[in-house]
Amino acid sequence: MNVNKKLDRFKQWAGERMGGEVKTNVSDHFKALEQEMGLRHEGMERLQKSMTAYVKTLSKRNEAEDKEKILPVAYLGSTMVNHGEDFDNESEFGQCLISMGRTNERIARVQETYVANATGSWLESLDRSLAQMKEYQARWTFLFMNLAD
What we know:
Blueprint lengths: L1 H17 L9 H31 L3 E2 L5 E2 L1 H14 L6 H57 L1
Antiparallel strand pairs: 1-2
Helix pairs in contact: 2-4, 3-4
């Protein structure tokens, strides 16, 4: 089988060199598609790299006073609530701290949900797309290596 393949390649090469066959050429449209695929692949790699860094930054947790790791905005919120509760119920400042603290705690919950959804959908989709692009390039290379021989 390998011998037949080599003979077919030799026959194609000889036919192209002797003028009996037209050399395999690539159209402008095909070259444009190839260039677009390269551009998409580079863009997907940059998107994946930046999204990974973004998600890592958003999901970074710090130790709170009770040694529990929480988001910095949640830590700020719980500190504000705790400090607001130190004041009288009549204290406007205390009530403002409690309100702002609870808002920051809600922001932390929304941020955690956002990170989970971004990782579960967008980042995983990027990873799958990159894997498909790499497979495409491997097959592309294999195809043109066979055509060139």
